[in-house]
Write a structure and sequence with these properties.
This protein has 346 residues and is mainly beta. It has two domains: 100 residues, Immunoglobulins (Immunoglobulin-like, Sandwich); 203 residues, no CATH class. The chain has four helices and 23 strands. β22 and β23 form a beta hairpin. The N terminus is likely disordered.
């Protein structure tokens, strides 16, 4: 296994299954609103508690959140008429979105069976993912400034937490690709073979170090043993660009926000937007907006624009916590990599 076994878990994200029972609706006396109730269990029938569940009205776009109780039960109440998409944006547990129709004065039931996509071993279990997705303690105070008066993004940061799971609309070929990944248990995931995973500026696991100068931002990722450069000296993109795994990045300041423009991707990696992943083409254009609102947090909004994959651009909003006292460590992917032999697909 890797020094940080988190690669294996995401490599297994395609192992997802959901078993749903939409029971007959029953009326709520003297109520004009509806509800969705159910229970969350894993592949072994054990209750799954303390995890987030999301309901989004497909007509209005209004989103609701709840958490499964100690008995695995969850509920959304006081819902208006409409179709709701139930999603389970929880790292380490997989379940595809499911639609439920809600009528006034009635409750619809949706029981969800999720599959544990972790190895369920020490350092690779659900508690690892719960910790990964949870906020970290951070120091308080204002954001530091550079001599030029710009926010200083320098520091070591925990992996970004996605504030709202993205819901891009894929073109047919891309949707078919995602379905194939799920059907094959994600056996072709690049990271399992020590190839770069993800295209965003910050890395999905481990910590990331940012070093900012007036003309250059250097990003060192522990997850992929990768280094990226963002040129801040006013240059443009090269006219004759060879596509690469990480693309080529230039940046400019808009007030206290650093806007990074990245193009030149080779289309060989996956877009990692946990708990989902998407393909992309060489037409991918990333616009990343960095903002440090205070000492302990770094916000990163990433807009993905790829007309070869998506029907329209979409944005992923994240926040990273300052990793006080941490440092980027060496991680050699090829050292004792046991992933390929286990990813046999179906």
């Amino acid at each position: 296994m890797f020094d940080r076994p988190s690669f294996v878990s995401f490599a297994s994200f395609g192992k997802i299954a959901i078993c749903t029972l939409l029971a007959a609706c029953f009326a709520f006396p003297q109520s004009n609103s509806g509800a969705i109730t159910g229970k969350v269990i894993d592949q072994d029938g054990a209750t799954v508690f303390g995890v987030s569940i999301r309901a989004r009205n497909l007509n209005t776009g209004t989103a609701y959140k709840t958490t499964s109780s100690g008995s695995g039960d969850y509920s959304f109440e006081r819902l208006g008429d409409g179709t709701y998409q139930i999603s389970f944006p929880t790292l380490g547990l997989g379940a595809p979105p499911q639609n439920v129709v809600v009528h006034a004065g009635q409750a619809s039931r949706l029981d969800i069976r999720v599959r544990d996509t972790s190895l369920n071993t020490l350092g690779e279990d659900r508690s690892f993912y719960a910790t990964r997705a949870a906020p970290h303690p951070t120091p308080s105070g204002p954001a530091p400034l550079t001599r030029e008066g710009k926010p200083d993004l320098s520091g070591v940061w925990w992996a970004p937490r996605i504030l709202e799971p993205p819901e891009p609309t894929l073109l047919p070929w891309a949707l078919d690709t995602v379905k194939q990944w799920a059907a094959n248990d994600a056996k072709d995931i690049p990271s399992a073979r020590c190839l770069p995973m993800g295209v965003a500026m910050m890395f999905e696991f481990g910590v990331t170090k940012l070093i900012q100068t007036p003309t250059l931002l250097v990003i060192i990722g522990e997850h992929d043993e990768s280094v990226r450069q963002v040129f801040l000296d006013g240059r443009g993109h090269p006219k004759d660009m060879d596509p690469t795994w990480r693309g080529q990045s230039i940046g400019r300041w808009e007030g206290d926000i650093l806007v990074v423009d990245t193009i030149g991707f080779n289309g060989k990696s996956w877009i990692a937007a946990y708990p989902s992943a998407f393909p992309y083409t060489e037409m991918l254009h990333l616009t990343t907006r960095f903002r440090r609102p205070d000492l302990g947090h770094l916000e990163m909004d990433v807009t993905f624009d790829d007309p070869g994959t998506f029907t329209k651009p979409w944005t992923m909003k994240t926040v990273s916590d300052f990793a006080q006292g941490e440092e980027v460590q060496e991680e050699i992917c090829n050292e004792n990599n046991q992933d390929p032999g286990h990813l046999v697909g179906k």
